[in-house]
Amino acid sequence: MSGYGNYGPPPPGYGGHPYGGPPPPQGGYYGGGGGGPPPPPQSSRPNYYPGNSGNNYPGGNYHRPPPPHPPPPGLDAYGYPMQGGNYARHARAGPPPPSAPQQFGHGAPQGYTFQYSNCTGRRKALLIGINYFGQKGQLRGCINDVHNVSAFLCENYGYRREDMVVLTDDQQNPVQQPTKANMIRAMQWLVKDAQPNDSLFLHYSGHGGQTEDLDGDEDDGYDEVIYPVDYQRAGHIVDDDIHAIVVRPLRPGVRLTAIFDSCHSATAMDLPYVYSTKGVLKEPNLAKEAGQGLLSALGSYARGDLGGVASSIFSFAKTAYKGDGAHNKTLATRTSPADVIMWSGSRDDQTSADATINAQATGAMSWAFITALKQNPKQSYVELLNSIRDVLSTKYSQKPQLSCSHPLDTNLLFVM
Q1: Parallel, antiparallel, or unpaired: how do β-strands 199-205 and 208-212 relate?
Q2: Is residue 14 a contact partner of residue 52, using CB atoms and an 8 Å limit?
Q3: 308-361, pLDDT tens digit by residue?
Q4: Is 64 helix (H, G, I), strand (E, B) or coil?
Q5: What Å distances lie between residue 142 and 86, 148, 383, CA to CA?
Q6: CA 365 to CA 387: how far, in whole Å?
Q7: C-alpha–C-alpha distance, residues 211 and 291, integer Å
Q8: What span, in angstroms and rounded, lies between the C-alpha atoms of 224 and 346?
Q9: Which of 28, 36, 267, 306 is 20 to 30 A distant from 385 in Cα terms?
Q10: How far is it, in rounded angstroms, from Cα 392 to Cα 311?
Q11: Alpha helix (H) ranges present in 103-238?
Q12: What are 154-175's pLDDT values in tens digits?
């Protein structure tokens, strides 16, 4: 593992959104309500400029995940059926990514082009799994997720353990603990010196939540956050800052594939282009908001509450205006010429399951991602999104999401 971090500690208070989201729950989900006390309020976070630290991190003693236990007969190395499911059998692998620069469009800044990565360059991975041992809201499957994803990347996509940084809260070395400072340093290491056609991978399995949006870039008025193991002392990490650290520094043609197996994670990296299972770009759902506002207005009218009618209509108009403005701001400020793809465990308003599958505690999203690609590694982006949802649909209500830093041709072959 080369050069992971003599990055200095982050500036005091960095990432310090005043805590506004729910603390981690007692267990069973990777975010939501209930659980331990929130971290103390912090001052508003300062502006962050990636790459201020250029030192190297002492390497060589990071945690190497153990190989998985031998599987039962008829199952592969991860405990999954050897034969693919119905969702994968009819998949038609799409064409490889184009090599020429692509035009943005879709409301992005004028003159922008982006570059797909062919993922033939250097490979680096950052894997973070937090079980929150001894804390309220302790989880069971997050460290297993990291072990499984690490083995999957090495065995199927050419990643090497010496080019991985693994942060889990079962390690004795304090440098490998998933504290806020260590997570930020590791994210800086991941993207440092990345070149076109490199393939970077970021995996987070742990608690997620929401807090009040302070900069007006969220349709729903809330930023998404993740919780380091020391969140009660150091605070959470907000999606704006994750974007600033791991997306903004990347050059055109650099691939970053990310999986966030946490609650409220659909836009945990603030990527502006979110895609449906039909492969089309999602827009702010103002029609849904309109329906809710009109239902509320009709209810007030039926009760003779004319003030309630006016309030409901005004509330909808305000929400619609704010949501549309937030969407436009996100397109203008979060679009990137790099090739950043994120798979998230749930919508922003959903929880993600901490599950037991094949007698192993695991995050449902991490398991589904590996399962879908093991059963059929040649899928387009939209096929893989549907495959992941199909894997989960029999037992779980969460809806994994696909988002991107640029307009994505979802019929292209998924590469990594």
Answers
A1: unpaired
A2: no
A3: 444 444 444 444 444 454 445 544 455 788 999 999 875 444 344 555 666 677
A4: coil
A5: 28, 10, 26
A6: 12
A7: 25
A8: 12
A9: 28
A10: 40
A11: 142-156, 180-191, 231-234
A12: 999 999 999 999 999 999 999 9
